[in-house]
Automatic annotation (TrEMBL):
Signal peptide: none annotated. SUPFAM superfamilies: Homeodomain-like. It comes from Kineothrix sedimenti. InterPro entries: Homeodomain-like_sf (IPR009057), HTH-type_TetR-like_transc_reg (IPR050109), HTH_TetR (IPR001647). Keywords: DNA-binding. Residues 29-48 bind DNA. Residues 6-66 form the HTH tetR-type domain. This is TetR/AcrR family transcriptional regulator. Pfam families: TetR_N.
Length: 207
């Protein structure tokens, strides 16, 4: 009795990753994936129902873990006593550590985030960044409420829509190093500078 070929799954996934990175999800071809993996279409569809399941297999472990980590960081923040919460919100040292950890996580899983940011349109993960934004918006609104603050820009109370836009801009900015293939060290410096910019802005508008 012959042993099953355990190399098929890794070959399919590697080929799928290369195809998604090269063409994006929508234009990726399962025929090309099979050809480059050296397998038949039957072998692929025996293991995966199609492109979406392949894409999910590549990104979901890391993407889902990152989302849970983000939720956990925000939950830990909101569990702080009020006096510590106010200090932690804009504390440069603690936030530097957070964003060093952020960069380390992203760069340990660079190809996955490349797929999520640049290649996910049309897949089950095409709204992934929006889902991260929603977590951060909810946390920010909760912080404003818990600390009895108001967000004021140019004398006008900031709407939830503006807060959503600001956080979207911030999060998209944090992933720019992935888009531009920055080195880890350059990404760390860039992230610290970006965080300083947004911290100054939030400190100015939150009263």
């Amino acid at each position: 009795m012959s042993k099953p070929d355990t190399s098929i799954d890794p070959r399919i996934l590697q080929s799928a990753k290369n195809e998604f990175l090269s063409c994006g999800y929508e234009k990726a071809s399962t025929n090309v994936i099979c050809k480059n993996a050296g397998v038949t279409s039957g072998a692929l569809y025996k293991r995966y129902s199609g492109k979406d399941e392949l894409f999910c297999a590549l990104v979901s472990p890391v993407a889902d873990q990152f989302k849970e980590l983000l939720k956990g960081v925000n939950d830990d923040f909101h569990n702080l006593p009020d006096n510590e919460k106010n200090n932690a919100a804009f504390a440069p040292k603690s936030q530097t550590n957070d964003f060093v950890n952020f960069i380390d996580f992203v760069y340990r899983n660079f190809d996955v985030f490349k797929l999520l940011i640049e290649s996910s349109r049309g897949s089950s993960y095409e709204n992934y960044l929006h889902e991260l934004v929603d977590i951060l918006v909810a946390s920010t609104m909760r912080f404003i409420k818990e600390t009895n603050r108001e967000a004021i820009i140019l004398g006008k109370k900031v709407t939830p829509e503006i807060i959503h836009i600001l956080i979207t801009a911030h999060l998209n900015g944090l992933f720019e190093p992935v888009i531009h293939n920055m080195s880890r060290e350059d990404a760390r410096i860039y992230t610290e500078q970006l965080q300083y910019f947004f911290n100054a802005g939030w400190a100015d508008i939150l009263h």
